């Protein structure tokens, strides 16, 4: 029996579990969504939440702690067949993801079940995503549309007033 044992073994050695958790977390921070099995996603989710909470602090000691827990893998993209370094995972975590979640108390990730099953062992596949990017873009579009509609109404009122004054000015000399 597994009384009071917190983590899943996932049929791996402890070193393999640690490396898998680090790699999946770094990939999640890099791409902001990954596809995996439900068991792995649940294990990685808790680790990701802790790292984002560290990133919200933004202190040097928090950065060093995150590097010790995760490592500092480079983010590399390929353009025209050449590898280009875009930054590091810890850099993105502390510069983009930490500030994104400053006003959020927790729940930085979501697990979405897919209808697909893995061909080899029929494992349930899920998407593990970071929450917030879509919400911030929706808020921006809503505020911009509200502001734009206010500006349009103000502009139309100003234009109508200008047209009325121009009409009255032009009509007066003709009379």
What features would you highlight for this structure?
175 residues; 50s Ribosomal Protein L17, Chain: A; 2 domains; three-stranded antiparallel sheet; two-stranded antiparallel ribbon; 19% strand
Overview of the molecule:
The chain is α+β, with helices and mostly antiparallel strands and 175 residues long. The chain folds into two domains: 14-131, Alpha-Beta Complex (50s Ribosomal Protein L17, Chain: A); 132-175. Helix content is 59%, strand content 19%. The chain contains five helices and five strands. A three-stranded antiparallel sheet has the order 1-5-4. Helix 1 (14-31) packs across helix 2, helix 2 (38-57) runs antiparallel to helix 3 (60-70) and helix 2 (38-57) packs across helix 4. The mean pLDDT is 84.
Give the helices and strands, then pairings.
Elements: H1 14-31, E1 33-37, H2 38-57, H3 60-70, E2 74-79, E3 82-88, H4 89-100, E4 109-117, E5 124-130, H5 133-174
Antiparallel strand pairs: 1-5, 2-3, 4-5
CATH class descriptor of the largest domain: Alpha Beta
Q: Can you write the helix and strand succession as a string?
A: HEHHEEHEEH
Spatial strand sequence of the major β-sheet: 1-5-4
Number of helices: 5
Write down the domain tally.
2
Describe the largest sheet. Answer: 3 strands, antiparallel
The CATH topology annotation of the largest domain reads as 50s Ribosomal Protein L17, Chain: A
Mean pLDDT: 84
Computed Rg: 26 Å
Question: Structural class given helices, strands, pairing?
Answer: alpha+beta
Tell me which CATH architecture of the largest domain applies here: Alpha-Beta Complex
User: Into which percentage range does the β-strand content fall?
Assistant: 15-25%
> Uncertain segments of ≥5 residues (pLDDT<50)?
none
The CATH superfamily title of the largest domain = Ribosomal protein L17
Number of strands: 5
Distance between the termini: 101 Å
Helix share, percent: 55-70%
Per the principal axes of the C-alpha atoms, what is the gross shape?
A: globular
């Amino acid at each position: 029996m597994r009384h009071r044992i917190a983590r899943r073994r996932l049929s791996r050695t402890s070193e393999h579990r640690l490396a898998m958790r680090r790699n999946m977390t770094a990939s999640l921070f890099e791409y902001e969504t990954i596809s995996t099995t439900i068991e792995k996603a649940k294990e990685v989710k808790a680790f990701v939440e802790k790292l984002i909470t560290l990133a919200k602090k933004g202190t040097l000691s928090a950065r060093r702690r995150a590097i010790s827990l995760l490592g500092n893998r480079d983010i590399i993209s390929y353009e025209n067949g050449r590898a280009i370094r875009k930054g590091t995972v810890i850099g993105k975590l502390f510069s983009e993801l930490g500030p994104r979640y400053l006003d959020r108390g927790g729940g930085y990730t979501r697990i979405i079940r897919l209808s697909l099953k893995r061909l080899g062992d029929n494992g349930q596949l899920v998407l593990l995503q970071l929450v917030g990017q879509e919400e911030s873009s929706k808020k921006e579009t809503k505020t911009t549309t509200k502001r734009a509609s206010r500006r349009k109404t103000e502009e139309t009122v100003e234009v109508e007033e200008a047209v009325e004054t121009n009409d009255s000015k032009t009509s007066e000399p003709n009379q």
